[in-house]
Design goal:
It is a single chain. By secondary structure, the protein is mostly helical. It has a single domain, classed as Orthogonal Bundle (UraD-like). It is built from 9 helices and no strands. The longest helix has 27 residues. It is elongated, with a radius of gyration of 17 Å. It starts with a helix and ends in a 5-residue tail after the last helix. InterPro entries: OHCU_decarboxylase, OHCU_decarboxylase_sf. It catalyses: 5-hydroxy-2-oxo-4-ureido-2,5-dihydro-1H-imidazole-5-carboxylate + H(+) = (S)-allantoin + CO2. Its EC number is 4.1.1.97. Keywords: Decarboxylase, Lyase, Purine metabolism. One of its GO terms (molecular function) is 2-oxo-4-hydroxy-4-carboxy-5-ureidoimidazoline decarboxylase activity.
Length: 170
C-alpha cells in the first residue's frame, strides 16, 4: 500500500491532525481531509496548493501565527514542534537571539503577522538578512511572499507526513 493510499484511509481525526501539523489552518485541514481520496502524491500536492490559495487572508494568517518565531523554536514534542525544531536547526550561527527577537517584533508590529520563511538548510545569518530586507516591503507584497513561503513549508511537511506513513507491499 502506498503512503497516499494509507493517507486516504486514515481515521478522520488522525488525518486532520496530520494535515493541521503541515499547515495550521482549520479550514485547510478540514478541506484536505474531506477531499480524500487522492489518486496520487501529485494530486494531493496540487489540491493542497489550490486549497491554500482559496483560503481567506484571515485563515492564512491563522496558519502563519501557528509557526514559532524564527529563532524561538517551538516547545513540546508533537509532530509540528519536531518539524519546526529541525527546520530551524541552522539558526544558531551568525546572529544573536536578541537581534532575531528584535527584528521579529518590528516585523510583526509592521505587518500584523509573523515572519515566515522556509528555514530548512539555511543559516541564521541568511534568514536574519532576509527578515531585515523583507521588513522594508509593503504589506501587500509581504503578505504574498509569506503566503508563498507557507505553501512551500506545507509541501515539505506533507512530504514528511507521507514519508512517515511508509510504503508496504500490501
Amino acid at each position: 500500500m502506498s503512503s497516499v493510499q494509507r493517507f486516504n484511509v486514515l481515521e478522520l481525526k488522525e488525518c486532520r491532525d496530520m494535515v493541521f501539523a503541515c499547515c495550521s489552518s482549520d479550514q485547510f485541514a478540514e478541506r484536505m481531509t474531506r477531499g480524500r481520496p487522492y489518486a496520487s502524491r501529485e494530486a494531493l500536492f496540487e489540491t493542497a496548493e489550490a486549497e491554500w490559495r482559496n483560503l481567506s487572508k484571515s485563515e492564512m494568517i491563522e496558519a502563519f501565527q501557528a509557526h514559532p518565531r524564527i529563532g524561538e523554536g517551538k516547545g513540546g514534542d508533537g509532530r509540528f514542534a519536531k518539524w519546526s525544531k529541525g527546520e530551524q536547526s541552522g539558526l544558531g550561527h551568525g546572529v544573536s537571539p536578541d537581534e532575531l527577537r528584535e527584528a521579529n517584533l518590528k516585523y510583526e508590529v509592521k505587518f500584523g503577522f509573523r515572519f515566515l520563511t522556509s528555514a530548512t538548510g539555511r543559516t541564521g545569518e541568511a534568514i536574519y538578512e532576509e527578515l531585515l530586507r523583507r521588513s522594508e516591503r509593503t504589506r501587500e507584497l509581504e503578505f504574498a511572499t509569506a503566503s508563498e513561503q507557507q505553501e512551500k513549508i506545507t509541501r515539505i511537511r506533507l512530504e514528511k507526513a507521507l514519508a512517515s506513513l511508509g510504503h508496504s507491499a500490501l
